[in-house]
Structure formats: structure tokens, C-alpha cells
């Protein structure tokens, strides 16, 4: 289904998304390359071993070195792709985020959920998270909201009970109480 | 342990009431999960893992295999009834099963797929039993040089199979290998790249990466499109007529197609990184080429359904071959199975089949048993399948995300693992949006410690690094690694030339 809506708005979006992706790739890989160079230098301080020719730092340095080469290669490739796109088109970063607002909202809710869990416990955090995400995804009123409340209660409390009583895996109960 | 003893012991463990019951639940969960669009087989397996921690090893693995085999059939349901593949493994199934269902034969389309899945799983279990033990015998003789080269080969194959850019694929593999080095060094225990942070002190467990990449970021992609969230009415109406045994004969009357597709599935499953999502398309394509009436493919004919479904189901057994024989998981699902064994304290590698023969035979038997259970469950419950696919994403996504959190927490009972999960999920989502393939990253994280340990062991045994190129098997594997990259580069250049012309 997402395919069909994608296609509908394709002609005007194609150019800008190509350009946005190329630009994002250049920035992303340049940043990674800088990070990996830093880590490469830092890995030099890792101790070597009396028992083996390779110490703790050699394998990471091998990988980091190769990574930097690949990052730079992608930077070059993306920069060439960027030059071929029409500089007049906009990158459309704002619209890109707006189009994916539901995904980012869901991920943000998941992040809050993880941060709240040690404080208010798994059961309550899950209940709130389940309700919040269902509301975000469209269960706003009437029967759907009722189902959302039901699902939140059943899974929030049910999973907690299932894991702590049946599978004997303890989930956080919360610092606050 | 002699073979018969091991076999009897595995039968005894497998046919206990607890194991049979948990396998049956696993089969149902697998079928239902894969039937829901947006819920992949890998997610189902990952979420089963914490449940198996308290089970004995064989029961745990058998339950996960049940979910796996069940999932192989479940994707067919939404493919046939809605024209939406429930999992990527069922893409080719939509080509013929859906038109068949639209023409008023939804029952026949489902039954064909279920039988084809069953026979595909049977064929793959047979190949697994025949191929894995001898391969393990050879693998035991491999030294650290060969192992390191084998992993390089596996990593390059994965990087070249998935995605459109080999540079990005290889970059992701390397990133995975690097992520695996965070935390304690595998041989000396020195902390690496932790920066004194609690979150990183224990490293980044590969299961957290697995859940983050294959579940969290995947789920985020599922909810992108606001309009798609309001699911449409079911498109297939009409009565469902099931004639399971007539259809069984119909499937068996195509032995060539069935066997070819199944064997293709096994081979593709055994290649690291490839899996059901590739096997169904290749099996369908090959069946079309071999057919006398290729023009009828896509209009709703039985051959298309049989090829796709037997092909994707057969990857289950194929993927287990490298895991059992070499200790190298061929796919994300096999990696989770391997993790389940490792959590139980069983070391996975070529010696597995000798040290824990009862477990390995139990896994073989569980494959057959699970295939039978899926068949029985599907044939009985087909009538209700349509309802499963109607569950809206607004419910599925948050519930599965909570299950992901449970999975990450159950692993080591560390809240920091949950924070890592959120981080990996977000990074994974952004990487996927920038067209970076994620499978090589996950495989890199899993294979990283094995690669490093073997590299360092090899150089400890002999400081001469040229041995990697002079030992014949090691040299051959390295050559294959180079060739896999070279062929991919050539293929991509050709595609680009065609696109330009």
C-alpha cells in the first residue's frame, strides 16, 4: 500500500530525494570516517600481550582502518552523484521528516518508555506506552480507543505477569514504589 | 555417545508432553505472526527467545524451530488472501496464489501453499541430515586460518547479495565487526571503546543489535505511511472450499517442480545472508523457465504457488547446515537459534554434533515434527485465517515493541540493554532509510568475535601471516571472497550500463 502512495507523488519528489540521500551519505560517511580515525588512534593505547603477536588493539585497528577507506570511498561516490543532480532542487529534509512523523513519534515514545521504565516499572510503563502509541497511530475515539485501552491493559499487565510468574524472568518493578 | 543412544535420548526428550505442547504453541505463534503483514519470521523467533531461557536446551531449540517452520507457512496466508506478502519470503507467492484466490478458489490456493510448504520442509530436513554430519567431520579439521578465511568469505557473500551497492554492504559488514569489538576483548578481557560508560561496559550484545535492527527499526518503517494504517476491506470473498487430499495429490503430481524448488531453497538457505526472501523468487523464476507454459505464470496457476512456497520453506533446513556443521549462522534466524544454545551453555561449532549428538538429532527430528504440526494446524484452522490478517498495525506495532523490550531485558536483566536497544533501533531505522543493507551489519556483529579469536589464534600458533594464503583451503576461501566481490561489481556495472542505455 505504501508503494502506491509513493508512486503517486514520485515525479516531483524523485530529484530532491536523490539529492537529499547523496548529501546525507556524504555528511554521514565523513562524520563516521572522522570518528573512526579518532578511535583508530585511541586503539593504539590498548595493551599488547606477551603471549601473542596481536594484542587487544590490532584487530580493531585493522577493522577501523578498512572502515575509513570504505567511508571515504562512499563519500567520493556520493559526492559524484550529488554533482549529477540538479542543484536547483531542494534537499527537502524538512518534508522528509514530516512524511515519516509517525515513525519518529513511535521511536520517540519508545525512547521515553525505556527511560521511564526503571522509575515506574515495566507494567505501568508498558501500559502507558501501548496506549500512547495506539493513540499516535490513529486510535483516537470510540470503539478503536476502547480497544486500545483494552490492549494496553491486557498486554501491559499480562506480559509482566506472564514473565515474572510463568517464565520466572524478573522485569523492572520501579524505583518509585 | 553411540548414534542409536543419542537418537533414542533425543526422541525421549522431544516426545515429552512439555516439549510437544511448547512446540505446538510455537507453530501456532509462528503461523499467526507471519500471517500478520509487518510482522516478520525473524521478529517472531527473536521474541520467542526469552521464553526459552527457562526450558531445557532441546525443548528451547525445538520450540524455536517450530516457530521458524510455522512462520514459513504463515506468510502464505496474507499473500494468498490479501495479495500482501505477510513476510518477505512470500513475495512470489502473491504472484499466483492471489489471482487464484481472486478467481474464487481461495481454499485451493491456501491448501496448495500449505502442502508445498510441508514437502519443502521435509526435503530440507532430509538434506540437512545427510549433509550436516559429513561437513562437520571436515570442519573439525579446519584450523584457525581456514576459519578466519571462511568468515571473510561469509561476510563478503552477504555484503554482495543484499542491497544495491557493494561498497555500502561491505561498509556495513565492517561496522558490524567493529561493533562486536566494543566491550571486553575476547582473549585478554581488556575493556575496549567503552569510554567508561556503564551502557557500553558489557559490550553491545548481538541479540540487542538483532532485535533493534530486525524488529524495532523494521516496525518504525511499518508505521511511516499514515494512509496505509487504515487497512482496507478484505479483497477475497466467496466460500472457502477445502479439499486437502485432492490438493495434496495435485501438489505431488508436480514432483519435478517440488523437488527443484525445495533443493534450490536448501542451497540458498545454506548460503550466508541469503534466505527465504531470495529463495521464493528464484524458485518461482526457475519454475517458470522450466515450465512448458511459462505465459500462464502469474495468472493463478498451481505451479507458481508450489514453487514459491516449497522454495521458501526449504530454506529452514538449509540455513541450519552451516550452523550445525561450522558454527556459523547463515541467517538472522539461525543466529538467534545459535544464541539460544549459547545461553544454555552449549558451545556451537563443528564439535556440536559429536559433543551433543542427542541435541542435534533432536533438532533434525524437531524439523519433521514441526512440519507435521504446521500442516495439521493450518488445515484445521484455515477458516479463521482471514481474521488474523485484519488486525490493524496500530495494535501490532506497539505490542511487538513491548515484546522487544522484554526480549532485551530478559537477556541479562540489565536496563542498559534496553537503552542500547532504543539506540540501535533508531540508528538502524536511519541507516535503512539511507539504503544501507542491515543484514551484513548484524552478521558482522555475530561473526566478529569468532573472526578475531581465530585470527589471533592463528598468529599465536605461527607468526607467519602468509599461511592464510598458502594453506590450500584458506587460500581457496579467500579467493572465493574476492570473486564474490568481483562478480557483484561486474553485475552492478552491467546493470548500470543497461539503465543508462
The count of β-strands of chain B is 2
Helix content of chain B: over 70%
Helix/strand order of chain B, N-terminal first: HHHHHHHHEEHHHHHHHHHHHHHHH
Query: What count of helical segments of chain A does DSSP give?
Result: 7
Distance between the termini of chain A: 46 Å
The tally of domains of chain B stands at 1
Task: Quickly count the domains of chain A.
Answer: 2
Largest interface: A-B, 71 and 66 residues
Oligomer: heterodimer
Q: Give unreliable regions of chain A as ranges.
A: 1-15
Query: Roughly how many Å apart are the termini of chain B?
Result: 63 Å
Silhouette of chain B: globular
Order of helices and strands of chain A: HHHHHHH
| Mean pLDDT across residues of chain B | 83
Strand order of the largest sheet of chain B: 1-2
**Estimated radius of gyration of chain A:** 24 Å
Which runs of chain B of at least 5 residues are low in confidence (pLDDT < 50)? 231-235
User: How helical, in percent, are the residues of chain A?
Assistant: over 70%
Mean pLDDT of chain A: 82
| Shape estimate of chain A | flat
Protein name (chain A): DUF1468 domain-containing protein
Keywords (chain A): Membrane, Transmembrane, Transmembrane helix
Domain DUF1468 (chain A): 30-172
Transmembrane segments (chain A): 22-41, 62-82, 102-133, 145-171
Report on the structure:
The complex is a heterodimer of chains A (177) and B (501). Chain A has 177 residues and is mainly alpha-helical. Chain A folds into two domains: 96 residues; 67 residues, no CATH class. Chain A is 76% helix and 0% strand. The longest helix of chain A is centred in the N-terminal third of the chain and has 34 residues. The N terminus of chain A is likely disordered. Chain B is mostly helical and 501 residues long. Chain B is 75% helix and 1% strand. Chain B has 23 helices and two strands. In chain B, strands 1-2 form a two-stranded antiparallel sheet. In chain B, a hairpin with a 6-residue loop joins strand 1 and strand 2.
Amino acid at each position: 500500500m505504501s508503494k502506491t502512495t509513493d508512486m503517486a507523488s514520485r515525479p516531483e519528489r524523485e530529484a530532491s530525494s536523490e539529492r537529499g540521500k547523496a548529501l546525507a551519505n556524504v555528511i554521514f560517511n565523513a562524520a563516521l570516517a572522522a570518528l573512526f580515525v579518532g578511535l583508530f588512534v585511541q586503539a593504539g593505547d590498548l595493551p599488547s600481550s606477551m603471549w601473542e603477536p596481536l594484542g587487544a588493539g590490532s584487530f580493531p585497528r585493522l577493522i577501523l582502518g578498512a572502515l575509513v577507506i570504505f567511508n571515504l570511498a562512499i563519500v567520493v561516490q556520493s559526492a559524484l552523484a550529488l554533482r549529477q543532480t540538479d542543484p536547483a532542487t531542494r534537499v527537502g529534509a524538512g518534508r522528509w521528516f514530516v512524511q515519516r512523523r509517525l515513525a519518529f513519534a513511535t521511536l520517540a515514545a519508545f525512547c521515553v518508555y525505556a527511560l521511564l521504565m526503571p522509575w515506574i516499572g515495566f507494567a505501568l510503563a508498558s501500559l502507558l506506552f501501548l496506549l500512547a502509541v495506539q493513540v499516535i497511530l490513529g486510535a483516537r475515539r470510540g470503539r478503536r480507543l476502547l480497544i486500545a485501552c483494552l490492549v494496553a491493559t491486557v498486554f501491559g499487565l499480562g506480559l509482566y505477569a506472564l514473565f515474572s510468574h510463568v517464565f520466572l524472568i524478573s522485569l523492572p518493578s520501579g524505583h518509585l514504589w | 555417545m553411540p548414534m542409536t543412544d543419542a537418537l533414542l535420548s533425543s526422541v525421549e526428550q522431544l516426545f515429552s508432553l512439555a516439549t510437544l505442547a511448547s512446540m505446538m504453541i510455537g507453530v501456532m505463534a509462528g503461523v499467526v505472526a507471519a500471517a500478520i503483514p509487518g510482522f516478520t519470521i525473524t521478529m517472531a523467533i527473536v521474541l520467542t527467545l526469552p521464553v526459552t531461557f527457562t526450558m531445557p536446551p532441546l525443548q528451547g531449540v525445538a520450540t524455536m524451530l517450530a516457530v521458524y517452520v510455522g512462520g514459513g507457512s504463515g506468510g502464505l496466508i496474507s499473500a494468498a488472501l490479501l495479495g500482501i506478502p505477510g513476510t518477505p519470503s512470500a513475495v512470489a507467492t502473491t504472484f499466483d496464489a492471489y489471482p487464484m484466490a481472486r478467481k474464487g478458489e481461495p481454499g485451493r490456493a491456501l491448501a496448495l501453499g500449505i502442502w508445498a510448504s510441508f514437502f519443502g520442509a521435509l526435503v530440507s530436513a532430509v538434506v540437512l541430515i545427510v549433509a550436516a554430519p559429513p561437513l562437520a567431520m571436515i570442519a573439525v579439521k579446519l584450523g584457525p586460518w581456514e576459519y578466519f578465511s571462511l568468515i571473510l568469505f561469509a561476510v563478503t557473500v552477504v555484503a554482495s547479495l543484499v542491497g544495491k551497492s557493494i561498497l555500502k554492504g561491505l561498509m556495513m559488514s565492517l561496522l558490524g565487526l567493529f561493533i562486536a569489538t566494543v566491550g571486553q576483548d575476547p582473549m585478554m578481557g581488556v575493556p575496549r571503546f567503552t569510554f567508561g560508560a556503564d551502557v557500553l561496559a558489557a559490550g553491545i550484545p548481538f541479540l540487542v543489535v538483532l532485535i533493534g535492527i530486525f524488529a524495532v527499526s523494521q516496525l518504525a518503517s511499518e508505521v511511516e505511511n499514515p494512509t496505509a494504517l487504515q487497512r482496507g476491506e478484505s479483497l477475497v470473498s466467496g466460500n472457502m472450499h477445502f479439499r486437502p487430499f485432492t490438493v495434496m495429490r495435485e501438489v505431488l503430481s508436480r514432483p519435478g517442480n517440488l523437488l527443484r524448488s525445495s533443493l534450490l531453497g536448501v542451497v540458498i538457505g545454506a548460503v550466508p545472508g541469503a534466505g527465504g526472501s531470495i529463495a521464493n523468487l528464484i524458485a518461482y523464476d526457475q519454475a517458470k523457465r522450466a515450465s512448458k507454459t511459462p505465459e500462464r505464470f502469474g495468472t493463478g496457476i498451481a505451479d507458481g504457488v508450489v514453487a514459491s512456497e516449497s522454495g521458501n520453506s526449504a530454506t529452514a533446513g538449509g540455513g541450519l547446515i552451516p550452523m550445525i556443521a561450522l558454527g556459523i549462522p547463515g541467517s538472522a534466524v539461525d543466529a538467534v537459534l545459535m544464541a539460544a544454545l549459547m545461553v544454555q551453555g552449549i558451545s556451537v561449532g563443528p564439535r556440536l554434533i559429536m559433543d551433543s549428538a542427542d541435541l542435534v538429532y533432536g533438532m533434525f527430528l524437531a524439523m519433521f515434527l514441526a512440519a507435521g504440526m504446521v500442516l495439521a494446524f493450518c488445515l484445521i484452522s484455515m477458516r479463521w485465517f482471514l481474521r488474523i490478517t485484519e488486525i490493524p498495525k496500530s495494535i501490532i506495532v506497539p505490542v511487538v515493541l513491548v515484546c522487544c523490550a522484554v526480549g532485551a531485558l530478559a537477556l541479562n536483566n540489565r536496563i542498559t540493554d534496553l537503552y542500547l536497544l532504543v539506540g540501535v533501533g533508531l540508528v538502524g531505522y536511519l541507516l535503512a532509510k539511507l539504503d544501507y543493507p542491515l543484514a551484513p551489519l548484524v552478521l558482522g556483529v555475530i561473526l566478529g568475535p569468532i573472526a578475531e579469536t581465530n585470527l589471533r589464534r592463528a598468529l599465536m600458533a605461527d607468526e607467519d601471516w602468509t599461511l592464510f594464503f598458502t594453506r590450500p583451503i584458506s587460500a581457496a576461501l579467500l579467493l572465493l571472497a574476492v570473486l564474490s566481490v568481483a562478480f557483484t561489481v561486474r553485475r552492478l556495472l552491467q546493470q548500470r550500463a543497461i539503465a543508462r542505455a
